[in-house]
Amino acid sequence: MKFDRLMISGKNMFDQAANLGGLSTEVRSQLEFEQLKATSRLVPSLLLGNIFLASVNYVAVANGPYLGPKTILYVMLCTICLVGMAVWRKMVRSDTADMLDRRKGRNSSRRQMPFVFVSMILGMLWAAIPPILAFIESPQQLIMVSASIAGIFCVGGFALAPMPMMATAFLLPIMLSSFTALLASGSSQALLMAFALMLYVVFIIATAISQTRSMVRVVVSGHEVEKQQKTISLLLRDFEKHASDWLWETSPDGQFLRPSERFCEVSSRSKSRLMEMNIKGIFTVDESAPHPSVDVLLGSMDRQVSFNDLQVPIRLKGEVHWWSMTGTPYFDDAGNFSGYHGVGSDITLQKKSDERISFLAHNDALTSLLNRAHFTELLHQNVTRLERYGAQFALMFLDLDHFKAVNDTFGHPMGDKLLVEVASRLRAIVPHGAFAARLGGDEFAILIPKSVSVEDMESLAQQVLKSISESFEFDGEKMSVGVSIGMAIAPRHGTRPDQLLRNVDLALYRAKEGGRNSYKVFEAGMDSQARERRALEFDLKFALENRELELFYQPLMGTEENAAVGFEALLRWNHPIRGRISPAEFVPIAENTGLIKSIGEWVIREACRKAASWPSHLTVAVNLSAPQFDKDRIVDVVTSALAETGLAPHRLELEITESLLIERPDEVLATLMRLKEIGVSIAMDDFGTGYSSLSYLLKFPFDKIKIDKSFISAIDEDKAARDVLRTIGSLGKTLGIRITAEGVETQEQVNFLRAIACDQLQGYFFAKPLRADDIAGFLLSRTVEMMETGTSVSHLGQIRAA
After folding, report:
1. How many CA atoms lie within 13 A of 510 on its CB side?
2. Structural contact between residues 30 and 103, judged by C-beta atoms closer than 8 angstroms
3. Can you give the pTM of this predicted structure?
4. Of 595, 646, 716, 726, which is most buried by a Cβ count within 10 Å?
């Protein structure tokens, strides 16, 4: 136990001297293993040297006294050396047992202890020799023994230098014995030799400790490198396992080496199959036309240069995938090319995403036609070709008619399906080389980048009209839309992009004005008309505040009373320069610019104000347009106008057209119901011109329907028109709805309409629209006529009041 503590204390002292205190257990184990390995290489030399020097000593002192003890000492030295040799040979035969112990985490210091113990025994045996020098008289023997002792210092000190503790255990007993023997001689020369010997041993031990420190630095650096390599290896394995990328390596001839599991997985090939393949063959997609990036990759490998992020195609399971490949050549120590290693990643999804982004940058997401930006770019390109080479081209703008009604009636998803089908029909029609685009909403365009005649454009327009006019059916629902088309040909109708766009838009506008579902080619007069329209638009902004707008009133004649029962308010514009402008000309402008809302409010308030001064049996009718029909605003305006003027609600009639119901049926019907609750009357204007008028009569209790004048004008010549009017009359009786016929111009029309039970008549036969100041005169003249014919004049007093 004391010996073990002594050994441990000695080891701790040497560890402290060599700065080993801060080392980790793993590093210390590695250091001790390296010390043991370095020492073990010199063990044979050390032991053989000990046997040789011991033999020299024995021969030198064999003729002297005490031969028996000398022989025993010699035998013990040789025996210890032979035992040490056997231990060393066993260690060698164990095939780096110390390395295995280190890998298992065992402490190599325990394997050093036998060597330390053997070294100490050898040192103690050699320590018995210096005292013999005192009994040697022969100078030759003295020289031989002294030389052997000096030799053992050299052999033991430097052979055991990698392990300072072994060197100390061997040298210290010899030094102490030699030092004591020299001091005992009493001579001054011996004293100097004793101190020189001590310094020599201290130098050897210090050198051993210094060598240990150097070894520590080497071991620590190696350990750090090994740890980094392990970390890198772990990261690479984790990279291979979890990342989408993989590592690859080839031989000098391009053969794959050691393919990873990830590489095998993404390539859909086994490891053995990959190792049979060459990188020059794996990327072959089309042998007749190799992809340029494949040529770059293979060319780089032939030149033995690096390449980065090359996007190359590869066919996997019948589909083309895309890989991003990065590779670097590597060379051996002699500079010979040894192959390639690099990183690959599957970028198929990214490639598809990039292609989708690129597609959406140039195409409409819903219909896949060109989008507005790409269409504009093509237009500028064709204008450039026109300027440089005189290459002609043509434009066509298309706008769907009644598409909003489809959205409102069937919903936006159904509207989207219709747009997709329209795009499909356009693709089937456009000429080869032409481009179809969706500009937004229900607006489409066609660009024909070649010379075409007006007749060619009209023929194409007719095909488009025919195709789009055919009914659409989705999910069992049928729907129909029309299309208005405007066309322009460059350079005849313009040479600049803005000029061409304006002119084709003017042609489209004119097509819409012409009744929709038609086409127009741009004409020079359209431009002047557009300028005139813009001038009217500007003047209309100030017409209301300049009091240029005026209401006229057309009488509504009761068929039973044979007298006026009310008036319809009609808007007129007295332009300061152009004079009176027709509502058909300026009302569409007001609707498109939004001015109709403020004008419409003024009409309601002015009509109510004027009607409030009429006889109480007279009503006033006001037309409502779609833009001003806001569900909250219109109710507020009507309520406010009635309150301000004091007009009884039942004396106000609001007329709406069927188109308003088609565009926003649910919203409009709900608002009409609120107006009915106020007490105003609701009339459907232009009845019979739409395809769903009857359905709306069942959905909402209209007070009156007005028969469109197109039916009235056909009474004299068209039997079908007369039959329709009789049906409408019967319908009014059945539903309890008053019937008004507008556009009455002859006595024959009056007689027929009375016969089919129309309640009210309106038209030039009775009177043209009147100024407000002329209403009293009209009523008086009608009273005079009634008196002359013997008709009742019960409202005479009220007429005078008017």
Report:
1. 21
2. no
3. 0.48
4. 595
